Protein backbone atom coordinates (compact mmCIF):
# COMPACT_ATOMS: atom_id res chain seq x y z
CA UNK A 1 0.00 0.00 0.00
CA UNK A 2 2.86 2.35 0.82
CA UNK A 3 4.42 1.60 -2.54
CA UNK A 4 1.24 2.58 -4.39
CA UNK A 5 0.94 5.88 -2.46
CA UNK A 6 4.60 6.61 -3.16
CA UNK A 7 4.15 5.98 -6.93
CA UNK A 8 1.03 8.20 -7.05
CA UNK A 9 2.71 11.06 -5.20
CA UNK A 10 5.72 10.78 -7.49
CA UNK A 11 3.45 10.86 -10.55
CA UNK A 12 1.60 14.03 -9.46
CA UNK A 13 4.82 15.84 -8.63
CA UNK A 14 6.31 15.05 -12.05
CA UNK A 15 3.10 15.68 -14.04
CA UNK A 16 1.21 18.60 -12.49
CA UNK A 17 -2.43 19.15 -13.47
CA UNK A 18 -1.79 22.76 -14.60
CA UNK A 19 1.29 24.29 -16.19
CA UNK A 20 3.65 26.41 -14.12
CA UNK A 21 2.06 29.61 -12.83
CA UNK A 22 -1.42 28.01 -12.60
CA UNK A 23 -2.45 29.51 -15.98
CA UNK A 24 -5.46 27.87 -17.66
CA UNK A 25 -5.04 26.48 -21.17
CA UNK A 26 -6.16 28.79 -24.01
CA UNK A 27 -9.67 28.17 -25.40
CA UNK A 28 -9.08 27.01 -28.98
CA UNK A 29 -12.17 26.87 -31.23
CA UNK A 30 -12.15 25.36 -34.70
CA UNK A 31 -14.27 26.87 -37.45
CA UNK A 32 -16.90 24.35 -38.52
CA UNK A 33 -18.73 24.88 -41.78
CA UNK A 34 -22.48 25.30 -41.60
CA UNK A 35 -23.36 22.25 -43.73
CA UNK A 36 -25.61 19.36 -42.77
CA UNK A 37 -25.54 17.30 -45.94
CA UNK A 38 -28.11 16.67 -48.65
CA UNK A 39 -30.31 13.63 -49.21
CA UNK A 40 -30.95 12.28 -52.69
CA UNK A 41 -34.41 10.72 -52.44
CA UNK A 42 -35.60 7.39 -53.79
CA UNK A 43 -36.52 7.74 -57.46
CA UNK A 44 -33.84 10.34 -58.25
CA UNK A 45 -32.51 10.05 -61.82
CA UNK A 46 -28.79 10.47 -62.51
CA UNK A 47 -27.65 10.78 -66.17
CA UNK A 48 -24.65 8.55 -66.92
CA UNK A 49 -22.71 7.10 -69.85
CA UNK A 50 -21.68 3.46 -70.26
CA UNK A 51 -17.91 2.86 -70.45
CA UNK A 52 -17.82 -0.65 -71.94
CA UNK A 53 -20.14 -2.95 -73.86
CA UNK A 54 -22.43 -5.15 -71.76
CA UNK A 55 -24.39 -7.90 -73.50
CA UNK A 56 -26.48 -10.91 -72.57
CA UNK A 57 -24.40 -12.82 -75.12
CA UNK A 58 -21.00 -12.65 -73.39
CA UNK A 59 -21.51 -11.19 -69.88
CA UNK A 60 -22.46 -13.61 -67.06
CA UNK A 61 -24.37 -12.69 -63.92
CA UNK A 62 -22.10 -10.74 -61.57
CA UNK A 63 -20.23 -9.07 -64.46
CA UNK A 64 -18.86 -5.73 -63.20
CA UNK A 65 -19.93 -2.56 -64.98
CA UNK A 66 -18.86 1.08 -64.83
CA UNK A 67 -20.73 4.28 -65.74
CA UNK A 68 -19.62 7.93 -65.69
CA UNK A 69 -21.77 10.95 -64.78
CA UNK A 70 -22.16 13.09 -67.90
CA UNK A 71 -22.77 16.42 -66.16
CA UNK A 72 -22.84 18.11 -62.75
CA UNK A 73 -25.91 17.49 -60.58
CA UNK A 74 -26.92 20.36 -58.31
CA UNK A 75 -29.30 20.45 -55.36
CA UNK A 76 -29.86 23.58 -53.27
CA UNK A 77 -26.97 25.34 -55.10
CA UNK A 78 -24.58 22.53 -54.10
CA UNK A 79 -22.84 20.28 -56.62
CA UNK A 80 -23.75 16.92 -55.04
CA UNK A 81 -22.62 14.73 -57.96
CA UNK A 82 -19.85 16.31 -60.03
CA UNK A 83 -19.24 15.49 -63.67
CA UNK A 84 -16.95 12.44 -64.18
CA UNK A 85 -18.14 10.73 -60.97
CA UNK A 86 -17.81 6.97 -61.57
CA UNK A 87 -20.66 4.57 -60.74
CA UNK A 88 -19.87 0.88 -60.25
CA UNK A 89 -22.39 -1.91 -60.65
CA UNK A 90 -22.93 -5.51 -61.68
CA UNK A 91 -25.20 -7.52 -63.94
CA UNK A 92 -27.95 -9.44 -62.21
CA UNK A 93 -31.11 -11.30 -63.24
CA UNK A 94 -29.75 -12.31 -66.67
CA UNK A 95 -32.01 -14.14 -69.16
CA UNK A 96 -30.91 -15.66 -72.46
CA UNK A 97 -33.05 -15.05 -75.56
CA UNK A 98 -35.68 -17.67 -76.32
CA UNK A 99 -38.30 -18.10 -79.02
CA UNK A 100 -40.66 -15.15 -78.68
CA UNK A 101 -38.58 -13.09 -76.20
CA UNK A 102 -35.31 -11.17 -76.48
CA UNK A 103 -32.53 -11.52 -73.92
CA UNK A 104 -32.78 -9.36 -70.80
CA UNK A 105 -30.73 -8.25 -67.79
CA UNK A 106 -30.74 -5.86 -64.84
CA UNK A 107 -27.72 -3.76 -63.92
CA UNK A 108 -27.52 -2.92 -60.21
CA UNK A 109 -25.48 0.10 -59.09
CA UNK A 110 -23.63 -0.38 -55.78
CA UNK A 111 -21.33 2.63 -55.27
CA UNK A 112 -20.15 5.93 -56.69
CA UNK A 113 -16.63 7.34 -56.55
CA UNK A 114 -16.04 11.10 -56.76
CA UNK A 115 -13.20 12.39 -58.97
CA UNK A 116 -11.14 12.99 -55.78
CA UNK A 117 -11.50 9.30 -54.76
CA UNK A 118 -14.21 9.62 -52.07
CA UNK A 119 -16.63 6.64 -52.15
CA UNK A 120 -20.35 6.64 -51.36
CA UNK A 121 -22.49 3.46 -51.26
CA UNK A 122 -25.49 3.64 -53.58
CA UNK A 123 -28.49 1.41 -54.25
CA UNK A 124 -29.97 1.80 -57.68
CA UNK A 125 -30.47 0.33 -61.15
CA UNK A 126 -29.97 1.37 -64.74
CA UNK A 127 -33.46 2.66 -65.52
CA UNK A 128 -35.92 0.93 -67.81
CA UNK A 129 -39.70 1.30 -67.87
CA UNK A 130 -39.93 -2.52 -67.70
CA UNK A 131 -39.14 -2.76 -63.96
CA UNK A 132 -35.52 -1.73 -64.73
CA UNK A 133 -35.10 -4.82 -66.95
CA UNK A 134 -33.07 -4.01 -70.06
CA UNK A 135 -34.41 -5.92 -73.05
CA UNK A 136 -36.99 -8.69 -72.71
CA UNK A 137 -39.22 -7.45 -75.55
CA UNK A 138 -41.26 -9.82 -77.71
CA UNK A 139 -39.54 -10.92 -80.89
CA UNK A 140 -41.17 -10.23 -84.28
CA UNK A 141 -43.74 -12.66 -85.70
CA UNK A 142 -42.43 -15.61 -87.72
CA UNK A 143 -44.98 -14.98 -90.47
CA UNK A 144 -48.00 -12.85 -91.32
CA UNK A 145 -51.39 -14.21 -92.32
CA UNK A 146 -53.31 -12.62 -95.18
CA UNK A 147 -56.88 -11.80 -94.31
CA UNK A 148 -59.44 -10.33 -96.72
CA UNK A 149 -60.93 -7.05 -95.64
CA UNK A 150 -64.17 -6.08 -97.37
CA UNK A 151 -64.95 -2.41 -97.84
CA UNK A 152 -68.70 -2.01 -98.30
CA UNK A 153 -68.54 1.66 -99.15
CA UNK A 154 -66.35 1.15 -102.22
CA UNK A 155 -67.33 -2.45 -102.94
CA UNK A 156 -63.68 -3.41 -102.92
CA UNK A 157 -61.59 -6.14 -101.38
CA UNK A 158 -58.21 -5.51 -99.74
CA UNK A 159 -55.84 -7.92 -98.10
CA UNK A 160 -54.83 -7.20 -94.54
CA UNK A 161 -51.73 -8.77 -92.96
CA UNK A 162 -52.19 -10.10 -89.45
CA UNK A 163 -49.25 -11.40 -87.35
CA UNK A 164 -49.33 -15.15 -86.81
CA UNK A 165 -48.99 -16.93 -83.47
CA UNK A 166 -45.44 -18.16 -84.02
CA UNK A 167 -42.61 -15.84 -83.07
CA UNK A 168 -38.99 -15.62 -84.20
CA UNK A 169 -36.02 -16.54 -82.02
CA UNK A 170 -35.16 -13.63 -79.71
CA UNK A 171 -31.92 -11.67 -80.02
CA UNK A 172 -29.36 -10.71 -77.38
CA UNK A 173 -29.69 -7.35 -75.62
CA UNK A 174 -26.58 -5.18 -75.79
CA UNK A 175 -25.73 -1.97 -73.95
CA UNK A 176 -23.10 -0.29 -76.14
CA UNK A 177 -20.10 1.66 -74.91
CA UNK A 178 -20.78 5.39 -74.91
CA UNK A 179 -24.56 4.91 -74.65
CA UNK A 180 -26.34 7.40 -72.40
CA UNK A 181 -28.55 5.93 -69.68
CA UNK A 182 -30.21 6.95 -66.41
CA UNK A 183 -29.60 5.55 -62.95
CA UNK A 184 -32.67 5.43 -60.71
CA UNK A 185 -32.06 5.31 -56.96
CA UNK A 186 -34.00 2.63 -55.06
CA UNK A 187 -32.89 3.90 -51.62
CA UNK A 188 -32.08 7.42 -50.38
CA UNK A 189 -28.42 8.48 -50.52
CA UNK A 190 -27.05 10.84 -47.86
CA UNK A 191 -24.43 13.14 -49.40
CA UNK A 192 -22.03 14.71 -46.90
CA UNK A 193 -19.07 15.11 -49.24
CA UNK A 194 -18.99 17.79 -51.89
CA UNK A 195 -16.16 18.96 -54.07
CA UNK A 196 -15.09 22.56 -54.45
CA UNK A 197 -13.18 24.06 -57.36
Strand-helix topology:
Blueprint: H1 2-14, E1 38-40, E2 45-50, E3 54-55, E4 64-69, E5 73-75, E6 78-81, E7 86-95, E8 104-113, E9 119-126, E10 134-135, E11 144-151, E12 156-163, E13 174-175, E14 180-185, E15 189-191
Antiparallel strand pairs: 1-15, 2-4, 2-14, 3-13, 4-7, 5-6, 7-8, 8-9, 8-10, 9-14, 11-12
What's the CATH topology name of one domain? Lipocalin
The secondary-structure class comes to mainly beta
Q: Mind telling me the C-alpha Rg?
A: 32 Å
Q: Say how many strands there are.
A: 15
The named CATH superfamily of one domain: Type IV secretion system, VirB10/TraB/TrbI
Summarize the structure.
This protein is mostly beta strands and 197 residues long. The protein contains one helix and 15 strands, in the order αβββββββββββββββ. It has a domain at 38-137 and 167-191: Type IV secretion system, VirB10/TraB/TrbI (Lipocalin, Beta Barrel), CATH 2.40.128.
What does this structure look like?
This protein is mainly beta. 7% of the residues lie in helices and 41% in strands. The strands form five sheets. It has a six-stranded antiparallel barrel. Strands 1-15 form a two-stranded antiparallel sheet. A two-stranded antiparallel sheet has the order 3-13. The longest helix has 13 residues.
